[in-house]
Hints:
Elements: H1 2-56, H2 64-92, E1 94-96, E2 102-104, H3 123-135
Antiparallel strand pairs: 1-2
Helix pairs in contact: 1-2
Amino acid sequence: xxxxxxxxxxxxxxxxxxxxxxxxxxxxxxxxxxxxxxxxxxxxxxxxxxxxxxxxxxxxxxxxxxxxxxxxxxxxxxxxxxxxxxxxxxxxxxxxxxxxxxxxxxxxxxxxxxxxxxxxxxxxxxxxxxxxxxxx
Length: 136
């Protein structure tokens, strides 16, 4: 009887440790996202300064190179943010619905709009199904 109690205690402690680890990873990714957003802000300011300086010089073409470089950097940062947000969803076991809601990964229907999600088989099951199909 005491052993069952300790097993449950151990299992609970293990789950708590896993949740804490997940939380630390989510915080780390959110911190990286915040840094990328600050980087984007910096590039927006650089674009504005370049346009202003070109306007003062009465030659907007002077800003073109700076705008291209900063815009390329902004696009890169936005892609990195998307990748980090996807990593967070994987950790939290969430997915996006077509309506924009974030729902649990195992959800079959969106609670907001009723959209039906396709059943996704784990990688092993997909490979087994493909092997079975090829054998026929």
